[in-house]
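Hello again, I could really use a second opinion on something today. For a while now I've been wondering how a particular protein folds. Please have a think about how the structure follows from the sequence. Here's the protein in full, and shout if anything looks odd to you:

***
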Amino acid sequence: MTYYFFAVLFFTLLGVAYVKGYDVVKSRSPEHLVHFYLVMATIRMLLVATVVALYVFLAPNREDAIHFAAIILIMYAIMMVVTLSMRH
């Protein structure tokens, strides 16, 4: 159960990093917002894939790994929708 707490914390930190980074890029160099979004989307995707892969390799059983991966991917999709709708 603590894994889910850390997953929520992980996505909260990723979302905050995106929003704060967006604000900085928009105030200093708005023409680079597209590049910022692409870089942040890549970083978020790689971090989420790494977290899922690590959990799958370290999970005590296959069922837990599948449930965790499904929840993380759903949270990732929700995070992408929320951050895009907040800033666009």
